[in-house]
Every structure is written in structure tokens, then in C-alpha cells.
Amino acid sequence: MGMQDEEYMRQLSLGIDSAFDILVFRYHKPLFGYVYRLLNDEKLAEDIVQETFLKIYQQGQKGFIPDQFKPWMYKIATNTCKDYWRKPVSRLEYVTDKDLKAKEQVYQIIDHQLERQWMVESLNKLSMDYRTVLYLRFYQDLKYTEIALALDISINTVKTRIARGLKQLGNILAEDERKGVEENK
Description:
With about 180 residues, this protein is an all-alpha fold. It has 9 helices and no strands. It folds into 2 domains: about 80 residues, RNA polymerase sigma factor, region 2, helix turn helix motif (Rna Polymerase Sigma Factor, Chain: A); about 90 residues, Winged helix-like DNA-binding domain superfamily/Winged helix DNA-binding domain (Arc Repressor Mutant, subunit A, Orthogonal Bundle).
């Protein structure tokens, strides 16, 4: 296990630019994967990743060292993406036990199908709020606490959005499957 990300930020704040290269090397690929899935546009994703790293670099030069680098980095990236989206109106959200049961089933589907194109297409039918939490959870492997930090929402909201997002995703997948069956008759 090498040095922690926060330690590289500390070095950057001391003017050691090579520390920044290591962060870019470490996170360029996962960050690009995340942003690309959100925006579905390679060129734009690359621009946003560059912009995210630029902001990280500038913050480091000012001497800012985040408590947890990863959530902070995803927060910057998500906010940079948000400039390109129209913000959906989020309503109050509640979760029921039934939602949680449905969630377990969809979890298993997601785990097996993460890299499939149809999975990404289905996820992209969800609202931005649901999409971001699901991508951060399943593709970037962030913990609930890290997602809460990255998106500036409470852990409860994270859990609710994941449950709701998975429920909607389940409906979309079921709908697509039903259509598929009808087309193959």
C-alpha cells in the first residue's frame, strides 16, 4: 500500500508537483469512467475530467487538503458535470421495506451486468439524482458515507435515492424485458 491520496495533496500544497501526477495517474481512468457514464459524451467527459484535475491542482496549490480525497474528487467532478445538466426537481423521498426487497434483487442483476451496454442505457433513463448515486455506488464503489460527502446530501437521502433508483431501474428493466418478449413472438 503506497501513500494515501491526502498525503499527495499535502505534498502538492508544499509545491511538489510530482505528487499531483501520481493522483492523476491513479484516478484518471475511474474518474473518466464515471463522468463518461453520466454524460455519454467522450469529448465532453475528457474536458470535465481535465477541469476536475485542474480544480484539484489549484486547490492543492492554495494549500487545501481534503479530509477524504476520493469523495471530494467525485464531488468536484459531479458539480462540474452539473453545470452541463438542467437540475431535476427532487421531491421528498421515503423508503419502504418493499422497496428494500426489490432493491436486493436489482443489486444482484446490477452486479452481473455492470459492463453491459443495455445496463448503462437503462441507468441513463433515470433522473440525474438517481443516476449519480447508483454510478458512485456500483461503478465507483464508494461507501454510503463517501457518496453523501461527494453529493452533499445526508446518508439517509443516499439510501433513499439508491433504493428508489433501483426500484425505477427494476421497472425499466422489466419493461424492456416485456417489450423484448413481445417483439420475439
